[in-house]
Structure formats: structure tokens, C-alpha cells
Amino acid sequence: RVVAVLNGPNLNLLGEREPEIYGHETLADVEARCRHEAARHGLAVDFRQTNHEGDFIDWIHELRHSAAGFVVNAAGWTHTSIAIHDALAAVAGPVVEVHISDVHAREDFRHHSYVTPVAALVIVGHGVTGYEEAVAEIAARVGAEG
Ligand code: DQA
């Protein structure tokens, strides 16, 4: 079974983009962390990133029945996108929302999330290890072997 890990805009620049906020690890490092954690639970990972909101929505549709669960860092779209909210409302498995930084300790415009109402759990401010926690959480919720 597969956990979908979907990353939104600018996360392709992870490691070079505002490292004082997001750290020095790259998105490839995050992918490796997710694969390692998923493998511990007998799960595979479908790991993707895009800067195009329509692609992000198409991926949610594509994976909505097949994915055991979704780890979603919608990045800036978290705070803007009713369309991503609506797409995630249609998925079968649990959604875990992840933010590397502590969005609640940052600008006011990061305090509201359109993803949270459709998320089973929100993990913020744990750095990139939040992704591993999210994968483990999905494994627990779908009863994957550990
Ligand atoms: C982020 C937080 C968002 O506010 C921001 O737009 C991002 C990354 C995070 O992982 O901390 O791009 O989702």
C-alpha cells in the first residue's frame, strides 16, 4: 500500500530557501526520510512536488482511492486554496497536514489553514521530522504492519 506525500509550491527549493526557517535538508532528503519510515511499516511512498495548483489537485484526484493516506504540505496554498480543501475532502484515506515551520508563530496570514478542516491530524513546527511522524501516523491509522 502507498502513502501519498504531496508538496506544494517552493518546497523544491528546500535547503536553500530561508534555511533559518526551513533548515538545510533538501526535498530529496525529506523523500528519503519518508521512504525509510514507510518501509518500517511495510508501506511504499508516492512522493511529489509541484508549483502548479491544478497539478496538485489532479494528483489528489488520481490518488484518492488508491492511496492508503495522504501527507500534505500544501505550503502557501494552505492559506489560500478552497479548491485544495475540496479535493482533499473527497479522498478515501486519512490526511495528515504537515508544516515544517511553526506557522502559528509566524505572520498572521499563515495562521489560517484551509487544509486543517479535512485533516485527521496537523503537525507543525517539528521541522522535516514532521513528515516521518505523519507517515507513521498514517501507518497507525490504516493498521499497517509495523
Ligand atoms: C510551510 C508554511 C507555509 O506558510 C509556507 O507558505 C510554506 C511552507 C511549512 O512547511 O512550514 O511554503 O507549509
UniProtKB/TrEMBL annotation:
Keyword Lyase attached: yes
Pathway: Metabolic intermediate biosynthesis; chorismate biosynthesis; chorismate from D-erythrose 4-phosphate and phosphoenolpyruvate: step 3/7
Residues annotated as catalytic: Y22, H99
Top-rank lineage group of the source organism: Bacteria
Enzyme Commission numbers on file: 4.2.1.10
Entries under Pfam families matching the protein: DHquinase_II
Family affiliation: Belongs to the type-II 3-dehydroquinase family.
PANTHER family on file: CATABOLIC 3-DEHYDROQUINASE
Function description: Catalyzes a trans-dehydration via an enolate intermediate.
Assembly with partners or alone: Homododecamer.
UniProt-recorded name of the protein: 3-dehydroquinate dehydratase
Organism: Nostocoides japonicum T1-X7
